[in-house]
Design brief:
Layout (H helix, E strand, L loop, with lengths): L11 H14 L6 H13 L1 H24 L11 H19 L4 E3 L6 E4 L5 E4 L4 E6 L4 E13 L8 E5 L2 E5 L3 E6 L3 E8 L2 E5 L19 E5 L2 E6 L3 H4 L6 E8 H9 L7 E3 L2 H4 L2 E7 L3 H12 L2 E4 L4 E4 L4 E2 L2 E2 L8
Parallel strand pairs: 5-6, 14-17
Antiparallel strand pairs: 1-4, 2-3, 3-5, 4-5, 5-8, 6-7, 7-10, 8-9, 9-11, 11-12, 13-15, 16-17, 18-19
């Protein structure tokens, strides 16, 4: 069946109806009456098809994200009732939250979320992220308050899409890019398409040109204590969080620990001494599994792991006996 999606965005009420139909049709005991009712609703208005497409896209991405976060876990061929109920409820809540009520979207530590905006733009929110959504007839405006998000922007040339992060403004038309806002810096990475970055903090200097664009794969990092830095990191490592992974390539242990801690608020890691902090770390690690990360690093470098109930601490072994280290760790499983 071909759906005429049209050009108009569906109303908030229709989007909520589509989410409700999605939840109803995904339940284990789906009936022929459900199917007939859905077909009737779909035929009532062209905007229903658009709303259904957006709700279905959210559902498919939620399933895909679940598979990526658990790549080795066998997936059931059919959702169990409790699992179905939880996921269906999350979809309805997400749709209503974005389209009907609170324009601020949050993720907790270790949580990731995919949200569809009313224009068809997909927002993928990483751990511990807050964004504020404000859609008007003149502009689509997203304010990244903290954290990290991937924006896959629906192409609407007459409807500008703007992301604000700190004192930076990123304008995009039909493109994909990530923005990460930490306490001391903002980093923007272009995945595809084109974006323009407004250096709002430099407007007072007439001889300071605006940073007009990036090339796909390029990253621009802004920090208060230095000039903007342009580089081209491996794009796969920038978006690895969507697959539930952290990829390190000769990364300082202190920086790798800080990255792993973004996804684990229960038992964070720390490094006790400067020598250990500078050790290079390379590899692919599962987000949220700080224990396996710590064991792997400790095994490779002969570090000691201690735990006080609130932190895991990595440190250099203080004493040696000839060529034999006093404390060694078993190889991680």
């Amino acid at each position: 069946m071909t759906m005429d999606l049209g050009n108009e965005s569906p109303s908030r009420e229709v989007l909520a109806e589509a989410a409700a139909w999605l939840a109803r049709l995904q339940r284990p005991r789906r009936t022929s009456q459900d199917d007939a009712g859905f077909r009737q609703w779909l035929a009532e208005d062209p905007s229903h098809a658009r709303a259904w497409s957006m709700a279905s896209d959210m559902w498919e991405n939620a399933q895909r994200l679940s598979l990526n976060m658990n790549p080795t876990k066998p997936q059931p061929t059919r959702w169990q009732p409790r699992v179905w109920s939880a996921i269906a409820a999350l979809i309805v809540i997400a749709v209503c939250m974005v389209y009907l009520r609170d324009p601020v979207i949050n993720t907790a530590i270790g949580e990731q979320r995919i949200v569809m905006l009313e224009d068809g733009t997909r927002l993928s929110l990483n751990t511990d992220t807050r964004v504020q959504v404000k859609m008007t007839s003149e502009v689509r405006r997203i304010r990244l308050l903290s954290g990290e998000a991937l924006f896959e922007v629906a192409k609407r040339p007459s409807w500008p899409f703007v992301v604000e992060a700190g004192d930076r403004t990123i304008t995009a038309l039909g493109t994909a890019f990530t923005v990460r806002k930490d306490e001391q810096r903002v980093a923007v990475t272009l995945v595809e398409g084109k974006i323009a970055i407004d250096e709002a903090g430099q407007r007072q200097h007439a001889d300071s040109p605006l940073m007009s664009s990036l090339q796909p794969g390029e990253r621009m990092t802004f920090a208060a204590d230095r000039e903007p830095q342009r580089d081209k990191p491996p794009l796969d490592s920038i978006v690895a969080w969507q697959r539930g992974q952290a990829i390190f390539d000769n990364t300082r242990l202190a920086d790798a620990v800080a990255e792993m801690n973004r996804y684990n608020g229960v038992l964070p890691l720390s490094v006790a001494d400067a020598a250990a902090s500078e050790l290079p770390v390379s590899g692919i690690f599962r987000l949220g599994d700080s224990v396996s990360f710590a064991r792997a690093v400790a095994f490779n470098y002969g570090l000691r792991i201690t735990e006080d109930g609130t932190h895991m601490v990595l440190s250099s072994v203080a004493a040696t006996d000839g060529d034999r280290k006093v404390e060694t760790l078993s190889q991680p499983q």
